[in-house]
Amino acid sequence: MKLVTCFIAFTLFLILFPARMEAADFALVVNKNNPLQSMERSDVKKIFLGKKTFWPDDQRIEVILQTGGDIHRSFAYEILNKSPRQLSLYWKQALFSGTGVPPRQYSDDQSVQEAVASNVQAIGYVDIFQLDESVRKIDLF
Amino acid sequence: MRLINTIRKKIWFCVNVAFIGFLVATGFALYSYKQQQIHLTHLRDFDFHLAMRSNELLNMFVLQKNYYKESFLFGSSDSARSGNLLCTKITAEIEAIIKSERSLHGLPLSRVEGLAGLNKMYNDYVEQATELYPLLAEGNDPNDYIEALQSLATAQNELQNTLEFFAEFYRQHFSDNVSTLMGLTNRNSRFLTVFFVLLLVTMSLVVNWAAKRTLITPLTHIKEAVRAFGRGQRSFPALERMNEKDDIGELGVAIITMTKDLVQTTVSKAYVDSILQNMNDSLIVTSNTFLIRSVNRATLNLLGYKADELIGQHMNKVLGEFPCGGTEAKGNALDAETACQLWSNAEKQFLTRDGVEIPVLVSSSRLKDDENADQGLVYVAKDITERKKAEQKLEQMALYDFLTGLPNRMTFSDRLEQTLKQAYREGRQAGLMFLDLDRFKEINDSMGHDSGDALLQTVAVRLISCVRESDTVARLGGDEFAVILDTLHGPQDAVNTAERILEAFDEPVVHEGKEILSSASIGIALYPVDGQNTVELLKNADLAMYQAKQSGGNSYSRFSTTIDQG
Asked: Which CATH code is given to the segment(s) B276-390?
């Protein structure tokens, strides 16, 4: 099973490699009321893989994914080191084994920003050019 | 012990004791083996079986879970179907385990209940899973079934944990039981070893005790009794206590009877020794090679030896002029030698310790043993010293004059005859002198018979001193003496002798302080001139002596010539 996964991952990597070169820039966004200004990349990775589920102020983290698209892909590769398919399998596996519930998914940047703007605990990512004032961008380092 | 009275029974008793020991040991070994077999059967039929089954159940469940996972992750309907197919197998497996468990008696109820709970839990799980997973595999959005999926995952994890627990439990149970069995086997073998050793020791002790009590001790008593009998003991209390109904006891009683019979029918060695020691005659026993083996007290007294100075010595140390050679005799020569040592009342000489010869009368005979073989010789000797002395005295009295010790008339006649025969053979001359004391009757009458006897004795001594060694002086009786002159060279020899004799009378004889003076008349006759034989010669010598006496005495005269000796 693992071998198959590895093979698929490798194939996808080869196919998608040129696309990565012109990867679209994403911005990590939270609710405006969230006091956090910046986060480390490893923390982001933990949050989006369901391994960190609480904000520093003990509020549950509401993770929001995009269903697909360049932004989703470049986020998955850059932050999570996974292909979008790998990420989807990761969450399915978690669902199957009962270790986690997959995050909610939205199909475009606009609905992501709406969801983040409406929920103080939410975190998501959008195309940096589509970023508006309703949410706050988090700096990564 | 009273019942075990024959040797056969005694030996069988020992053998049976050993055999019973063997049977007991075998019985214990079989029992222990049977116990182990029961444990092993249980182990094979239940513990191993359950361990295998529970492990398989776990494997099947994990396989099913993987099928479902595959179907869920990759949307494979085939995998979902495969998963569903496993349901019946797994249920059957669970039920088989429950059946096995139920067939065991005395099992804690909680385990059966736990298994029943497992069965129910699985049924609930599988009911949902068989519906949901195929549905999802067909492409339905899992986000619509999150709650159902979560409860399934929980049930799944719980089931897996439970199954793992059971698999581990049964494996552990099997392992524990194997360990227990190994412990049991070890304990059994240790117990059996100790038991066998104890049994062996006990059996050895019992057999040893029985053998000692029934065989060895009675036989030892008998052996001691026989030895004691050899030393002369005649009563055996140890044997008398024996039970005569017992084989060995019978032997003991037989020995007592035998000793009593022997005492009645034979004389004891001590008795014989006493007789031999106290007999007056010497008794010497030698070996076939004449080495002295034993002597009695009379021998020691006679010879002046101590017993150990004689024993082992050769017989020739005692027996003078041992006539049959030394110790080198062998074989047939020995027989011959022994034969020449067989005497009946032979006169022999024994040598005492001081080298004195003692005349003895010896009888000897062969000493035979029971098989009639020669064991040596027995000498019985009688001391005949006294008898010898008496014989010598008789001889002396017959041939010699009692008063002077000179040859008497009989001896004289014999010697004269011998001398004449020899002279005739050798062509020599010989002489005969008759000598008569002058006035002897007067001396005898006036001075007493003692003086006469003393005179005669002195005359005898003086006469002997006047003649040569080879000449014979004899007393013919009364005051008559005769002298035989052996080997004369001429008449002058005789005359010289006669003159020497007359001179010898010149000195008086002193008897009890009185001097006795006497003289003699001598008549001489020479052979062959004065007589050819004894009769003639005697007659002529007598005549010549008569002539001398006629002429006044203290003179000599020769036959046929008259010499006046003023």
From this structure: 3.30.450.20
Average pLDDT for B250-265: 82
Compute φ and ψ for B139, nearest 5 degrees: 110, 5
Sequential DSSP letters for B449-466: HHHHHHHHHHHHHHHHHH
The answer to whether residues B236 and B255 touch, using CB atoms and an 8 Å cutoff, is yes
Touching check for B505 and chain A: CB below 8 Å?
no
ipTM of the assembly? 0.74
pLDDT tens per residue, range B165-185: 889 988 998 999 899 889 988
Residues 6+ apart with CB under 8 A from B3: B9
Report the CATH architecture of B23-188: Up-down Bundle (1.20)
Q: Give CA–CA dist B409/B481, Å, rounded.
A: 9
For chain A, how many structural domains are there in total? 1
If one looks up domain B400-558 in CATH, what number appears? 3.30.70.270
The Cα-based distances of B46 to A77, B17, B42, B61, B172 in angstroms read 55, 44, 6, 22, 13
- Tokens encoding B513: 């302080």
Amino acid, res. B86 = L
**Is residue B142 less than 8 Å (CB to CB) from chain A?**
yes
Terminal-residue alpha carbon distance, chain A: 35
Instruction: Write out the residues of chain A at the interface with chain B, using a CB-CB cutoff of 8 A.
Output: 1, 89, 92-93, 95-99, 101-102
Which residue, among A13, A29, A17, has the nearest Cα to A66 in the 3D structure? Answer: A29
What SS3 class is residue B400? strand
Tokens (6 digits) for B466: 């006047």
Greatest mean pLDDT among B3-7, B100-104, B195-199, B346-350 lies in: B195-199
Amino acid (one-letter) located at B200: L
Predicted confidence band of residue A3 (pLDDT cuts 50, 70, 90): low
Q: Is B146 on the interface with A (CB under 8 A)?
A: yes
**Residue-number span of the structural domain to which A63 is assigned:** 2-140
Distance CA B301, CA B314 (A): 19
Q: H-type helices in B43-137, by residue range?
A: 49-74, 77-103, 109-137
Residue A36 tokens read as 């956090």
CB A65 within 8 A of CB A72: yes
Q: How far is CA B470 from the centre of its chain?
A: 68
Q: Closest Cα of chain B to A3: distance in Å? A: 13
Q: Do B142 and A102 touch (CB under 8 A)?
A: yes
Q: What is the average pLDDT score of chain B? A: 84
Two tokens, residue B493 = 């020899």
Model pLDDT for residues B79-129, shown as the tens digit of each residue: 888 999 999 999 998 888 888 887 776 666 677 778 888 888 899 898 888
Locate the domains of chain B by residue range: 23-188, 276-390, 400-558
Q: How far apart are CA B69 and CA B129, in angstroms?
A: 11
Write out the H or E segment, with its range, that includes residue B525.
strand B520-527
Bridge pairing between strands A62-66 and A104-106: parallel
SS3 content of chain A, % helix, strand, coil (to 5): 45, 20, 35
Note which residues in 53-72 of chain B have CB less than 8 A from chain A. Answer: 66, 68-70, 72
Least confident of A18-27, A42-51, B135-144, B220-229: A18-27
Q: How far apart are CA B154 and CA B160, in angstroms?
A: 10
DSSP readout, B411-426?
HHHHHHHHHHHHHHHH
Note whether B153 contacts A96, CB cutoff 8 Å: yes
Cβ-contact A87, A76 below 8 angstroms: yes
Q: Taking CB atoms and an 8 Å limit, are B142 and A92 in contact across chains?
A: yes
The CATH number for A31's domain is: 3.40.190.10
CB atoms within 10 A of CB B101: 17
Is the CB of B154 inside 8 Å of chain A's CB atoms? yes
| Same topology between domain B276-390 and domain B400-558 | no
